[in-house]
Specification:
By secondary structure, the chain is mainly α. The protein contains six helices and no strands. Helix 1 (about 5-15) packs across helix 6 (about 115-150) and helix 2 packs across helix 6 (about 115-150).
Length: about 150
Amino acid sequence: MTYDFGLHFTQELGKRFGPATDSWPATAERVTPFLAIVVDALGVDDGLRWFEAARQARQRVLEDERDDSYSFGFAHYLDTATGAHEDITLPVVAAFEALKGAYEVARRERSVDVDMYFECAAQACSRLGQARRDRREQLEQGRERRVAAQ
């Protein structure tokens, strides 16, 4: 499936960092393709759910670090939050590995928290989902008008 995720994600980044992309964190360019894979593999609605799960997993890692306790790591917490282990399909594996990749790349940047990328991705999916629902509603209304006109 093809979506305009990259465009909407870039718009969300622009809201955070401003319009001048040369001042954005270096990881923004590297993380974007990983996050797009999630949406391409799972679709907008499941992509949103997975980005929220990634935020939860990141939070669990931070809690473990703060409490100085054993951490099972981002991948484990992501697997638990998404239920990926229950549905091992090619799209799920692609999305899971892409989120792990995005996390590993983004956490190398000290100037930005990886959670910000997941939040922007979730916002982009939310906007895409709403646009898709609005378009479907317009099509249905047009169909109803044509039927009524006959």
